[in-house]
Amino acid sequence: MYLTHLSLHDFRTYQHLELPLSPGTTVLVGPNGVGKTNIVEAIGYLATQDSHRVSQDAPLVRFGAERALIAGQVNRGDRLTRVEVEINPRRRNRARVNRADFSRAREALGILRSILFVPEDLELVKGEPEVRRRFLDDLVVQLRPDQAAMRNEFDRVLRQRNALLKSARASGGFTEAHEATLDVWDMHFAQAAAPLMRNRIHVAKLLAPHVAQAYSELTNGAKAATLRYFTTVVDEAETLGSVDGPVAEQTLLTPDMVHITDVVSQALEASRARDIERATTTVGPHRDDVMLGLGSAPAKGFASHGETWSLALALRLAAFRVLMEDDPSDAARPVLILDDVFAELDEFRRQRLVAALADAEQVVVTAAVGSEIPQGLDATVVRVSPGEVMIDDATNA
């Protein structure tokens, strides 16, 4: 899978951009602020319909315009597919695939797959649990686009349950009517939480060996990297532990949604008094985390800056390999995007990362200057200046 052409209309700083692309590595070179990241952000958005820079779509639309359009021509093995996403901040986004309109933009997910490396990936290791939960959820959607609405549904139910707890406290006490309503929302919560947890635990299990392998490749086997999913539910219901725990293994081998729903229900029952006292939901997938380790120590708080970088890169490479393992055909191989990453790495890690990229059919890299790109990386160089691009004849960065 690779992009053969990218078109932007009123996206970020670009009123109009046409960029031909090819298999192999393309390096976008230009000073900071000229729009390189806007281009790779557009590619990522075309694949995931999410931005790694903002949580709302409005900033993606060029100032003064009503909507933005991202269009890509995707080579998927033996056929070309044109996918377009129209971003409308004031109404629902729209998508079109080969001139066929989709009523919901997310129906176009899966046409293009991508994995994005950015300097902010350090937060995957040293940041808050929400960053790591989103990492898992995003990979779930790339693997199974039909799961895209799952997180939103859980968030909706969580807001409703918390609103009930807060309103009961504000009214002066928890009545029988409140209890009855909470029973209903507990049922909805468990039903929404179960598939979210099942998918996260499953993806964590897929990631774990690839993280260990990728970290070893990037660091020449300096330390062993580990990944496991931790859920607050285990503390309340005394079940569904980490990925390497026996109950979690049983759940993965027999993905019984009724069982997982019952486990969440038990956890809610056990935490009810505390939830009422604090007026918030204290257990569930919104409180879970991905535990990363190096050697015998947790990575967060103990890893050096270099180790943190290597582990963050290993997480992204592991996600790429999970997608490859899911569908090893060229038609499903993700596009790899590295936004200003080489500038943050020493020469050893640069060369290790280049070697790890060998399985990618298409890689798009951004750099402020050509000297940031490792020696020997064959690439098409695209010079980026404000509002325009120019492809060099040179093929070595």
UniProtKB/TrEMBL annotation:
Q: Has UniProt tagged this entry with the keyword Oxidoreductase?
A: no
Keywords, alphabetical? ATP-binding, Cytoplasm, DNA damage, DNA repair, DNA replication, DNA-binding, Nucleotide-binding, SOS response
- Location of the protein in the cell: Cytoplasm
According to the entry, every stretch annotated as the AAA+ ATPase domain falls at 22-395
Per the record, the similarity remark reads: Belongs to the RecF family.
Query: Function of this protein?
Result: The RecF protein is involved in DNA metabolism; it is required for DNA replication and normal SOS inducibility. RecF binds preferentially to single-stranded, linear DNA. It also seems to bind ATP.
Protein name (record): DNA replication and repair protein RecF
Species this chain originates from: Pseudoglutamicibacter albus DNF00011
What is the primary gene name for this protein? recF
